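Researcher: I'd like a structural prediction for the single chain below. Treat it as a standalone chain; there are no partners to consider.
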Amino acid sequence: CSAPDVCQCNPGFINKDCSTKAICSHDCSYQGTCLGNEECLCYFGWGGGVCSTKTCESLAYCSGHGTCRFDGACECSVGWHGSACDLVSCDGINNCSGHGDCIEVNT
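Model: Treating it as a single chain, here is the predicted structure.
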């Protein structure tokens, strides 16, 4: 208890004694915890009122080589590809100028 005879419930539990699990009609899209009164606390990477929208929590999400689109997907900068923009693309270095072989590596 945070004060005499007053409980501060953990996320997902409600009522004076924190004995009732909060229920939201949309179940927070199974991407968050219901706090009661149709309010959700979204898990990392999810947002919106019912936790149904993917989010980029930081620039690290796109490995610093792209930007986050409205749908939560990365749009990679030139020279990078992959869902997290973490794979080098030889297109960004002019395909080795015709004087070498492109070898893609994870960085």
